[in-house]
Amino acid sequence: MAHMLVPSMQCRMGITSNSIQARPIMTAKTWNSLLSNARRPKTKKSTSTFKVLALKSDNNGAVSRLENLLNLDITPFTDKIIAEYIWIGGTGIDIRSKARTVPRPVEHPSELPKWNYDGSSTGQAPGEDSEVILYPQAFFRDPFRGGNNILVICDCYTPSGEPIPTNKRYRAAQIFSEKKVINETPWYGIEQEYTLLQPNVKWPLGWPVGGYPGPQGPYYCAAGADKSFGRDISDAHYKACLYAGINISGTNGEVMPGQWEYQVGPSVGIEASDHVWCSRYILERITEQAGVVLSLNPKPIEGDWNGAGCHTNFSTKSMREEGGYEVIKKAILNLSLRHKEHISAYGEGNERRLTGKHETANINTFSWGVANRGCSIRVGRETERRGKGYLEDRRPASNMDPYVVTSMLAETTILWEPTLESEALAAKKLQLQV
């Protein structure tokens, strides 16, 4: 069916439909006046008010046309969808992705085909045998493409089906599939802190280039152009995560200016880590569009500035029931005995953050306390009062792998049993009665 061309002509010439409707009916007097004006010689001041915008080649027009194409809704015309396959690269923290067409919308990850990529380009395979296979494990609605399009969280395997060394999800899935762990229904609430950096100079957003803002204090959960830097990015990320189906529960400005935090959870088992990884991917894409650099460095600025952590709140069914406080203390005891193992897996560069200052415990010393943010493990006042609840592991760095941290917490507190002797010594040292 032919489409009317008049509206598009009006747009190109800068005429609105309202201006046409408001124009009076043409009379003989008006027509003669127009003819008379047309015969008069043109002066420099007599310029046309009608501008053919289509002929202008400015960047704004190009951007507008590009945005129109990006926002196209393909749903009425095809059942096909775009699936963005996301995986973790060779550093263990870099996020990679590529897109493919899928014939129709899906309801479960098992309906999505496996795919492959060049592992030699991500530091995950040698050049002579570079194929790495992507296994779809979870998917979310795509806030960038909209419609039925999806973001797909994958883990990585060799062509023979063996998990590659950087595939931390595989081991986590094994732990979370243990019957004892399933019966305890482990809940996680993960607090992801991050820093926004100015491009090129790699200096925090809102900071004077090569200089420093005023001391910490006014910036935490603050409002105002001189105190809050990057709120639009935080809010855009918040809404995008809700759209995607990520269980994001809140966000706030952090202690160091240019630093933010969002929380994912409470989520059960491995789902918590899938949600955190997808939320990180969305944040990377949003900062990319904003022309800002995302940093998960646990201590982006040396000196008297807070670092960036990924505090992990954790509870089991037994902790949440009557008598749960004793179960929490037993879990803390187990965590103290495996402190070194946890610290070694809690993020690169964490020793620069865990100094005993800026609301952290010293990396070499395990400690716990009620409402104490300077401890390794914090227990809330409400948990102490009610005699049940959860604990907060404050040791993980902002660049930690949530698959590793969540599965280690479950393994250490649910599956692992220390010897009676080591348990007694640890209880005495921590003054725990269990």
Automatic annotation (TrEMBL):
Keyword Ligase: yes
Residue ranges of domain GS beta-grasp in the record: 81-161
GO molecular function, one term: glutamine synthetase activity
GO cellular component, one term: chloroplast
Domain (GS catalytic): residue spans on this chain: 168-434
Top-level division of the source organism's lineage: Eukaryota
Cellular location(s): Plastid, Chloroplast
The protein's Enzyme Commission number: 6.3.1.2
GO biological process per UniProt: glutamine biosynthetic process
Keywords per UniProt: ATP-binding, Chloroplast, Ligase, Nucleotide-binding, Plastid, Transit peptide
Catalytic class of the enzyme: ligase
Catalysed reaction, written as an equation: L-glutamate + NH4(+) + ATP = L-glutamine + ADP + phosphate + H(+)
Keyword Nucleotide-binding assigned: yes
PROSITE patterns: GLNA_1 (PS00180), GLNA_ATP (PS00181), GS_BETA_GRASP (PS51986), GS_CATALYTIC (PS51987)
UniProt-listed SMART domains: Gln-synt_C
Region of interest (Disordered), ranges: 105-126
One Pfam family from the record: Gln-synt_C
PANTHER family: GLUTAMINE SYNTHETASE (PTHR20852), GLUTAMINE SYNTHETASE, CHLOROPLASTIC_MITOCHONDRIAL (PTHR20852:SF118)
Family from the record: Belongs to the glutamine synthetase family.
Subunit structure: Homooctamer.
Protein name: Glutamine synthetase
Organism: Phoenix dactylifera
Lineage, uppermost ranks: Eukaryota, Viridiplantae, Streptophyta, Embryophyta, Tracheophyta
